[in-house]
Amino acid sequence: MSLSLLHGRRLLSSGLALLLVQLLLLQYLTCTMAEGCCPLDWLYFSSSCYFFSKTALSWDNARDWCSDRNGHLVIMHTEEEWEFVTRHSMPTFYWIGLTDERTGKWEWVNQTPYVMNSRHWKPGQPDSWTGHGMGHGDEDCAHLHSDGRLNDLHCDSRMRFVCQSHSQRSS
């Protein structure tokens, strides 16, 4: 092996090591003990990470996509969570983790009951409409409408979705 090739290898190796150190430093600076760490393209809020998709999937496929990334379709229990999610979702439609498909009663994807709050829904919703032309079934999945309020829709409809996962703490 020539001397210039060995020298080039050493330079490349030291360059990669420097990039690794810079990446670790960047992670340390952006992931502190006070706040959690979220994957790239996820947003941190109140100890959770949120992903607002740019691609459209059916509700089931969106649920699986989130699960494959150690998360779930978003569950919102507090007004602060509702405000955060709707602020980032408007004016686009997004699937959330709310469905009545399993039991006929609205529940979150983790099977906790949803407490009906008509203020969060579009007027006249949910309505379980069957005239959607999408085959069997009514509207069993909830999504955020462009104004940030809920609507029920056939689960095979395709739209963007919001995933949620627990943030990771730096060590």
TrEMBL record:
One of its GO terms (molecular function) is carbohydrate binding. The keyword Disulfide bond applies. The keyword NAD does not apply. It comes from Myripristis murdjan. This is C-type lectin domain-containing protein. Keywords: Disulfide bond, Lectin, Signal. Residues 1-34 form the signal peptide. Residues 45-164 form the C-type lectin domain. Pfam families: Lectin_C.
